[in-house]
Automatic annotation (TrEMBL), chain A:
SUPFAM superfamilies, per the entry: alpha-helical ferredoxin, Respiratory nitrate reductase 1 gamma chain
Any one GO molecular-function label of the UniProt entry: 4 iron, 4 sulfur cluster binding
InterPro entries: 4Fe4S_Fe-S-bd, 4Fe4S_Fe_S_CS, HdrC_iron-sulfur_subunit, Helical_ferredxn, NarG-like_sf
Protein's recorded name: (Fe-S)-binding protein
GO terms under cellular component: plasma membrane
Keyword tags: 4Fe-4S, Iron, Iron-sulfur, Membrane, Metal-binding, Oxidoreductase, Transmembrane, Transmembrane helix
Transmembrane region(s): 6-25, 65-85, 105-130, 151-173, 218-236
Biological source species: Dyadobacter luticola
Residue ranges of every copy of the 4Fe-4S ferredoxin-type domain listed in the record: 299-330, 363-393
UniProtKB/TrEMBL annotation, chain B:
Membrane-spanning residues: none
PANTHER family per UniProt: IRON-SULFUR-BINDING OXIDOREDUCTASE FADF-RELATED, IRON-SULFUR-BINDING OXIDOREDUCTASE FADF-RELATED-RELATED
Keyword Coiled coil carried by entry: no
Protein name: (Fe-S)-binding protein
Keywords associated with the record: 4Fe-4S, Iron, Iron-sulfur, Metal-binding, Oxidoreductase
Record InterPro entries: Cys_rich_dom, HdrC_iron-sulfur_subunit
UniProt source species: Dyadobacter luticola
GO molecular function, one term: oxidoreductase activity
GO annotation, cellular component aspect: plasma membrane
Length: 442, 265
């Protein structure tokens, strides 16, 4: 019987590993579809930024209460994994609480600490669920933000329920285990009482040993299977941020937020036009400028899209969104990811090669009206807890619209024309530039 | 007191006399052509004169930095303007630039180096703060603003774009005024609605205009003076104020105008 359980466990573990690895492969491959961009300069500065923002969650503490609750879930997630390691070893080897004899009396303290974290996760997730469903924090509501309709809103709640159920499973498992220890069952190693699950023991005290073992085993299997499902689910959901927050903050922009990326192709064109350089023989003229699809964006823009956890802090700070325009920086990130996922599926179905599906990011996912509404105020960039830059994508899409499609509002065309003929965005003669000085001594 | 004659030397005039200024005052398109912002240009010029700064302007040789074209997505027009500006600046050997426009400031400071134009660039809020710290501007003794409520509207291209939050506030503190903050200020400051080329087009359909949202917040502070540090913010906030029919009781001034007033210029 034991061996059957071990075989099932190993098969489950292997299946999880395979599914996660395959998915990670697809994500990595689609991120690498992006334009090349070197973000490896100043490693020391980058490392310290990652440690502060991702590891230390600095920006989450802009809202202290939420920051604290999020920290509880984060610590719980990272540290309870030590216990998951024990569960995995037990599952493979057919042992029970394999770490207990190794660390002796410390084991009870360790598990009690994990229970403390589990309760922290439980409480935080319940509060988060209340904020989403009862308090109805505006930025999380599909009624106010169309990008949250359907799956995104469900995804957000599902993961919280998932975590709550997993934590209840841990506590039930430990409580049943403790009761069985009290009955001196040889299989259940003596560990001493645990901090929180001891209060659940009365629930199990009246159950006779045979069914109780089944309950304990069930909770154990339920918990570990839940974790396996969770591991696969995370790679498909918005929760990728638990991993990607680290590389995403490491590779974030180090220059002032106001600086736009230069387009060197245009610099060489302009230098030739101004007679500063001679045209090069056989110089390649690019087919298009800016970005119309995910392949034209940089790999970092694409990693940004996978790192987004749809919290909506960007959107709630966006002046265009606040005043009712269609633009939502969160939607920019979600659309970019949706497009990337579609491209990824397309590649999987076509032996790894992307086959044109007649769609593109601008127009089919992100609307022109959205990118036109951006004031480039950087509020979205400022707000993101994992240093995502939605504005960068918007500006690259604008470059495509203007330079490839000549799609500009009339008033912008007027402005361009004025700039070209009068060197000012308004229709004033360049010769009048110093006229203001005449009023200086009036 | 002897009446001072204010001067605006151009780079060309200075070069003809074999002189080099301490600093180039980059006036910008709004500062040159917008009727309201010309007053700011004049105020800042008076301050520079009074402080005895050896400065110059490019005059008719100045062009738009290209910021609105670049933000709108027209990289060609931006780079054409930027390159010709860099040629002019380098011809005169300009080392240091001060400007009253955060958009010009950002572009000159952050975006010209990649195109070969390297200068020390200051926003006039930073420059004014330096002059105050060095004692070259004296606002003490003037009671014009003592205890008066002033609120400062952060410009995105000064604040978030370049992390300049304190300099304009230090300038205002020198007026001995009562500086009151809006609910959304500094890193959380709400845009006036003009950046990213919005100044030159109608806004997209929505519930409200951004400048109305912002002026409401500014009025909530109870301040009768709203200080700005950007020509676009000036236009947007002034329009908002007119919309609220408060232009008689509340005034909007640029930092330079407030300092010039305190100096009695």
């Amino acid at each position: 019987m034991e061996i059957v359980q071990q075989v099932i466990f190993i098969l489950l573990l292997a299946a999880t590993g395979w599914l996660v690895a395959r998915r990670v492969g697809v994500i990595g491959k689609t991120i690498r579809l992006g334009r090349d961009e070197d973000r490896r300069d100043q490693p020391g500065k980058r490392l310290s930024m990652m440690l502060r923002i991702a590891f230390g969650q600095k920006k989450m503490f802009d809202r202290p209460l939420i920051g604290f609750l999020h920290l509880a879930v984060y610590l719980g997630f990272v540290l309870i994994n030590v216990e998951v390691l024990e569960i995995v070893i037990d599952g493979i080897a057919g042992t029970h609480r394999v770490f207990a004899p190794m660390v002796g009396g410390f084991y009870g303290i360790l598990i009690s600490f994990f229970e403390f974290l589990a309760v922290g996760v439980l409480v935080a997730c319940v509060i988060f669920l209340i904020r989403r469903s009862i308090v109805k924090v505006p930025r999380l509501q599909p009624e106010r933000h169309r990008e949250m309709h359907g799956w995104p809103a469900l995804d957000g709640k599902l993961i919280l329920v998932f975590e709550i159920v997993l934590m209840i499973a841990i506590l039930s498992m430990n409580a049943a285990d403790s009761v069985l220890q009290d009955r001196d069952n040889a299989h259940y190693t003596q560990t001493g009482t645990f901090l929180f699950s001891q209060f659940l023991k009365p629930i199990f005290a009246g159950i006779s040993t045979e069914p109780l073992i089944i309950i304990e085993r069930f909770a154990w299997w339920f918990h570990i299977t839940g974790i396996f499902i969770f591991a696969v689910y995370v790679t498909y959901s918005k929760h990728l941020h638990i991993v990607l927050a680290f590389p995403n903050t490491y590779f974030a922009k180090l220059v002032p937020k106001g600086k736009m990326d230069n387009m060197p192709v245009i610099t060489s064109e302009v230098r030739i036009m101004l007679g500063l350089d001679q045209p090069q023989e056989g110089a390649v003229v690019p087919e298009h400028f800016g970005a119309k699809d995910v392949q034209d964006l940089s790999w970092k823009n694409l990693m940004d899209a996978y790192s987004c956890t749809e919290c909506g802090r960007c959107t709630s700070a966006c002046p265009a969104n606040i005043t009712g325009k269609k633009l939502s920086p969160r939607k920019i990130m979600m659309d970019t990811r949706d497009r990337l996922e579609d491209v990824g599926r397309n590649m999987l179905a076509n032996k790894g090669e992307f086959v044109d599906d007649g769609k593109q990011l601008i127009g089919d996912y992100i609307l022109e009206e959205e990118i036109l509404a951006c004031t480039t105020c950087n509020a979205c960039v400022q707000e993101c807890p994992v240093l995502i830059n939605p504005m960068d994508i918007i500006l690259q899409l604008r470059r495509h619209n203007i330079m490839d499609e000549s799609k500009a509002p009339n008033s912008w065309n007027m402005m361009f024309q004025n700039l070209e003929t009068n060197q000012a965005p308004w229709k004033f003669s360049p010769g009048d530039r110093l006229n203001w000085a005449q009023k200086l001594n009036e | 007191m002897e009446e001072q004659t204010y001067k605006v030397p151009t780079m060309a005039e200075m070069a003809a006399q074999n002189e080099t200024p301490e600093v180039l005052f980059w006036v910008g398109c709004a500062g040159s052509f917008d009727d309201r912002y010309k007053k700011v240009t004049i105020a800042f010029t008076k301050i520079l004169n009074k402080a005895g700064i050896k400065f110059a302007v490019l005059g008719t040789e100045e062009s738009c930095t290209g910021d609105p074209a670049r933000r709108a997505g027209n990289e060609f027009t931006f780079q054409m303007l930027a390159m010709s500006n860099i040629q002019v600046l380098d011809m005169y050997g300009v080392k240091k630039i001060v400007t009253a426009c955060p958009h010009c400031f950002n572009t000159l400071k952050n975006e010209y180096p990649e195109l070969g134009g390297n200068y020390e660039v200051l926003h006039h809020s930073e420059y004014l703060q330096q002059l105050i710290n060095e004692g070259r501007i004296r606002t003490q003794g003037n009671q014009a603003f003592t205890g008066k409520k002033i609120t400062f509207h952060d410009s995105c291209y000064l604040g978030r774009a370049n992390d300049v939050y304190e300099a304009p506030r230090h300038v205002l503190e020198s007026l001995d005024a009562d500086l009151v903050e809006m609910k959304r200020c500094k890193t959380k400051g709400l845009c006036c609605g003009a950046g990213g080329g919005q100044m030159f087009k109608e806004p997209e359909k929505g519930r409200k205009d951004i400048n109305i949202e912002r002026i409401e917040e500014a009025l909530q502070t109870g301040a009768h003076t709203i200080a700005v540090a950007c020509p676009f913010c000036m236009v947007m906030m002034t329009d908002g104020l007119k919309n609220k029919e408060k232009e008689d009781s509340v005034k909007i001034y640029d930092l330079a105008e407030l300092i010039a007033q305190a100096e009695g210029l």
